[in-house]
From TrEMBL:
One Pfam family linked to the record: PIN
Database matches in CDD domains: PIN_Sll0205-like
Annotated PIN domain residues: 4-117
Protein name (Swiss-Prot/TrEMBL): Twitching motility protein PilT
PANTHER family listed in its UniProt record: RIBONUCLEASE VAPC16, RIBONUCLEASE VAPC16-RELATED
Top-level taxon of origin: Bacteria
InterPro entries, A to Z: PIN-like_dom_sf, PIN_dom, PIN_Sll0205, TA_system_RNase
Species of origin: Burkholderia contaminans
Database matches in SUPFAM superfamilies: PIN domain-like
Length: 129
């Protein structure tokens, strides 16, 4: 199965962090699964790094993702158009999450996320980590 990992899940998985749930760890470790990280995650990491909110340089994150065997999913125009079709939630307007949800829907792959706000977009495609 193809799985899209959200930013936190990808970072936690790449560094073997204890925050990763047993469910997410099992999905990530299952050899038949193909794991993807969105280019939006690299963008999010870059912004948070520049603001001092994340100590990981985006170059190092990309390298760690590659070493972990994650494929990178570029952002296409179809993905961006898909953002317009998503429901609006007053308490959640995170552009990175919205792009990743649109990517997951367009590509037909579950998005693995630990964020309950993300789960609301499309429950059948969200995997709670």
């Amino acid at each position: 199965m193809k799985l899209l990992l959200d930013t936190h899940i990808a970072l936690w998985a790449a560094e073997g962090a204890p925050q990763l749930s047993a469910t997410a760890a099992a999905l990530i470790e299952y050899p038949e699964n193909t794991l993807y990280v969105s280019a939006a995650s690299i963008w999010e990491i870059a912004i948070k790094y520049r603001k001092g909110n994340l100590p990981v340089h985006p170059r190092d994150a990309r390298s760690a993702f590659r070493l972990a065997g994650f494929a990178e999913l570029p952002i296409s125009s179809d993905h961006v158009e898909g953002v317009a079709a998503l429901p609006d939630f007053p308490d959640h307007a995170d552009p990175f999450d919205r792009v990743m949800v649109a990517q997951a829907l367009h590509e037909g792959m579950p998005l693995v996320s630990a964020d309950p706000k993300v789960w609301r977009y499309h429950a059948t495609l969200m995997l709670r980590a």
